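Cross-posting from the chemistry board since nobody answered there.

I work mostly on the small-molecule side, so proteins are not my area. We synthesized flavin mononucleotide and want a rough idea of how it might sit in this target. Sequence and SMILES are below. Is it possible to get a predicted 3D structure of the two together?
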Amino acid sequence: MILPIHGYGLWSTLYGYIAVEENGNDIYGLQFYDHAETPGLGAEVDNPRWKALWNGKKLADEDGTLQISVTKTPPPAGEEYHIDALAGATLTTVGVHNLVNFWMGEAGYGPFLDNLKSGGV
Ligand SMILES: Cc1cc2nc3c(=O)[nH]c(=O)nc-3n(C[C@H](O)[C@H](O)[C@H](O)COP(=O)(O)O)c2cc1C
């Protein structure tokens, strides 16, 4: 599934998509198609090496608690829920962390993803 997402970075609103596997929990990838972050800093969201880090990460743990994080240090939940921060672009990173958590959470696609996980349509 390819789900549209957006949210603030440092200088701009980032617009993109997150691709989630049919199980509603495994991330296939993340791609922004529009933003005005600084080349070499926040615009590294477009770097193929950084984007590749998203593939295979999980959104929520076995209890269904959203754990995905985009931070300098891994969360207690572990690396399978963690994408490394962008070097020198902490503020864009915080924006991406926040927007992914918003859209994947209760106020975003969370209920839809929960429904998929429980075998609904
Ligand atoms: C001209 C200029 C452009 C910047 N662009 C960005 C940006 O796009 N994203 C970002 O997070 N930080 C940007 N910064 C840096 C932030 O001000 C801040 O220093 C940085 O996010 C801190 O990251 P760090 O803790 O990883 O060093 C820019 C700084 C300058 C001077």
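Reply from a structural biologist on the board:
Welcome over. Reading the output above for you: The pocket of flavin mononucleotide is lined by residues 10-11, 37-38, 41-42, 88-92 (CB under 6 Å). The longest strand covers residues 13-20. Happy to explain the token format if needed.
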